[in-house]
Amino acid sequence: MGAAYFYHLTQRSEADTLRMLLTKSLQQGWRVAVRGTDMGRMEALDRALWLGPDEGFLPHGLAGGAQDAAQPVLLTVEAVAANAPSCVMSVQGADVTADEVASLERVCVLFDGNDEAALGCARLQWKALKDAGASAQYWSEASGRWEKKAET
What we know:
Layout lengths: L2 E7 L4 H14 L4 E4 L3 H12 L10 E2 L10 E4 L10 E4 L7 H6 L2 E7 L3 H16 L4 E5 L6 E5 L1
Parallel strand pairs: 1-6, 1-7, 2-4, 2-5, 3-4, 5-6
Antiparallel strand pairs: 7-8
């Protein structure tokens, strides 16, 4: 049974945080789906991930290609990713379910702490997962480093 980790972004960018989390996930041997809600924003995220540091090459692809099933990291707006992920990372308020939390190694929810709509969406997701009995952790970077602030 997996867990949902909520990441409250206040200092690092979404792309920088994803680079860190995706690198750790790949080191675990997991395939990852990064699920968003807007394809244009996912395309921008794809470009940002390719522009990362040379020593931190992050193999990934944008959904819609012939090799989607082979991608170690697939950026998508679909609820079911073609790469059979062990981990789903939700950005842009993309939905995650308690069933996914139970069936995957990890679900990560990244949200912008400077955006009231994103905060509201994350609170609703936290409550829904908690009410469904899913294991969840809340992580904040307000101190300058990631710290676990709550757990269910």
